[in-house]
Write a structure and sequence with these properties.
Largest sheet of chain B: 5 strands, antiparallel
Structural class of chain A: alpha+beta
Distance between the termini of chain A: 39 Å
Strand content of chain B: 15-25%
Oligomer: heterodimer
Number of strands of chain B: 10
Number of helices of chain B: 8
Shape of chain A: elongated
Helix content of chain B: 55-70%
Helix content of chain A: 10-25%
Strand content of chain A: over 45%
Largest interface: A-B, 17 and 16 residues
Distance between the termini of chain B: 37 Å
Strand order of the largest sheet of chain B: 2-1-5-4-3
Radius of gyration of chain A: 15 Å
Chain lengths: 126, 416
């Protein structure tokens, strides 16, 4: 019970830290959010309308090349896409872009990526 | 030949048009059938295996996943739009994503396919609300078939094709057949025309040969008739005329009863001589001119005396008359005199020939039994009909005025 309580507290702190570091920005119809993961990795997530659909792009920047990350993209809570990607290049990053259907009302997207215990949770709404 | 070519050309055009209509109909069926087969492949081999669970319930993730597949693998070829309907009329997926989740009434045909399976096609009604996002004026044909969701629900898969695409496919089907049909017909017409030309040429040669033979025969016959007529005229006729004069002289100097007997013999001989001259004219008509036409007409009337018909011939001054016109007048007079003497049972027959304002007018009138020109059979008066044709060909007219019991009057008018 004590362990569970401490875990919940950590999660709460992480969420608070994530929320604090989230910086939404609008460029035209595009929405961009940025934030940090649990172990210093940075994420960026953006969404923009694309010919009746929504183009969603998430970027994970760990500064370490060759890491394999598992990720899941959810659209209004439902799995829209999932996969694994590897960080590449000098920046040690990867990005995932998917087109989704533009549902009636606001569309909420959540991108969750994990690697070696580090968790990144990115969100964007359009 | 020309008539055949015209008729052949018309038949050719009719066959080409008919074949085109029938081929177009068959090609249209074939094009629609192609679209149906294509749709069935798309529906059963591409769409159905990849429909994710949750699509029917409208789960956004499932819709996203299927949308990525549909965009790449369903909108191929001539397919312009895809819709997947649930049985309650809800569009569970369309590449026009604004329609997803909307509900419309399904038609009877669509419901039948959903219930019983199969595939059908129809022209899209662009006025229906589910088609409001389509381009106005661009015709579409929708083909629908049944598939099933992973949950086992029947779904209606609809693929839309442009009418232009269907027509292009139709044209592609028609083109080879049109080439074959048109080519075969052109070859047929060419062969038929060649054969016709050969036959026509052969027929023309045969006709020319026949004409040459006929002319030759006619010429030979004419020469023979002329020889017979000349021999009779120079021989028998002269001898009989001399004998008749001699007998007449003997009768004048002889006593009775020899005088009467010889006189009667002389008279009979003169009658026979006249009949013989008339026969000679018929065997070989003289070369007729305005000058000898009166005498020739007189000769035609020679047999009248033997039938107790009082024949009168009046010929006025005719001026210049061509040989063919004189021949025509004589031929008409010959036929009319012959008819009178054979059929009319007349007492008098008047022949009047004159020239009026450059027109030769011949009138032959008798007081015989007459006839009804409208009631006689064509065969019975073939001579008159042939005469009318002959006169008409010469630019003249022949008017027959006859009534039963009131005699007959025939009037010929022909340019001199």
């Amino acid at each position: 019970m004590k362990k569970l309580t401490s875990r919940l507290a950590i999660c709460g702190l992480l969420a608070a830290a994530t929320a604090l570091t989230t910086t939404p920005a609008h460029a035209g119809d595009e929405v961009v959010n940025r934030g940090s993961c649990t172990d210093g990795t940075h994420w960026k997530m953006k969404a923009k309308p694309d010919d009746g659909r929504i183009e969603v792009e998430a970027e994970i920047d760990s500064n370490v090349t060759g890491q394999t990350w598992r990720w899941v993209l959810r659209h209004d809570g439902d799995v829209s896409a999932r996969g694994t990607s590897q960080t590449r290049g000098a920046s040690g990053s990867f990005s995932v872009a998917r087109r989704t259907v533009d549902s009636p009302g606001t569309d909420h997207f959540r991108f969750r990526a994990t690697h070696a215990g580090e968790v990144c949770v990115a969100r964007v709404s359009l | 030949m020309t008539l055949f070519l015209v008729v052949g050309l018309l038949a050719f055009v009719a066959i080409v048009l008919g074949a085109r209509v029938l081929t177009a109909r068959a090609a249209n069926d074939e094009a629609l059938s192609d679209a149906q087969r294509f749709t069935e492949v798309l529906a059963r081999s591409v769409a159905q295996p990849d429909i994710p669970r949750g699509l029917v319930r409208g789960e956004p993730g499932a819709v996203d996943r299927f949308d990525r597949l549909a965009t790449d693998r369903l909108l191929v070829g001539d397919v312009r739009r895809v819709k997947i309907w649930a049985a309650d009329g809800t569009i569970v997926y369309s590449d026009e994503v604004r329609l997803i989740g909307e509900r419309f009434d399904l038609g009877a045909e669509e419901r039948e396919i959903l219930d019983a399976g199969g595939t059908d096609a129809e022209v899209t009604d662009l006025d229906k609300p589910e088609n409001r996002y389509e381009q106005p004026g661009g015709g579409l044909v929708e083909v629908y078939t049944r598939i099933r969701s992973p949950e086992g629900e029947p779904l209606l898969f609809e693929a839309y094709y442009t009418v232009e695409g269907i027509e292009a496919r139709q044209a592609a089907v028609i083109r080879p057949f049109q080439r074959i049909t048109l080519g075969a017909l052109v070859v047929l017409v060419c062969v038929a025309t060649l054969l016709l030309w050969l036959l026509t040429r052969r027929e023309a040669r045969a006709a020319a040969e026949r004409e040459r033979l006929l002319l030759s025969a006619a010429s030979a016959s004419e020469a023979e008739r002329r020889r017979i007529a000349r021999d009779l005229h120079d021989g028998v006729v002269q001898d009989l005329a001399g004998t008749a004069f001699t007998l007449a002289a003997v009768a004048r100097e002889a006593d009775e009863p020899v005088r009467s007997t010889v006189g009667a013999a002389s008279g009979s001989l003169r009658e026979n001589l006249r009949a013989l001259r008339s026969l000679l004219v018929e065997i070989h008509p003289p070369d007729l001119t305005a000058a000898n036409l009166p005498a020739a007409l007189e000769d035609l009337c020679a047999p009248a005396a033997a039938q107790a018909v009082d024949a009168t011939v009046r010929v006025a001054e005719l001026g210049e008359v061509g040989e063919d016109r004189a021949g025509l007048v004589w031929r008409v007079a010959q036929e009319l005199v012959r008819n009178t003497l054979r059929h009319a049972r007349a007492r008098t027959m008047d022949i009047d020939l004159r020239r009026v304002d450059g027109v030769l007018v011949l009138e032959v009138e008798d007081d015989g039994v007459g006839f009804d020109p409208a009631a006689v059979s064509t065969t019975a008066h073939y001579g008159l009909r042939g005469l009318q044709a002959l006169v008409r060909d010469s630019g003249g007219t022949l008017v027959i005025d006859a009534r039963p019991g009131a005699g007959t009057r025939v009037r010929l008018e022909v340019p001199a």
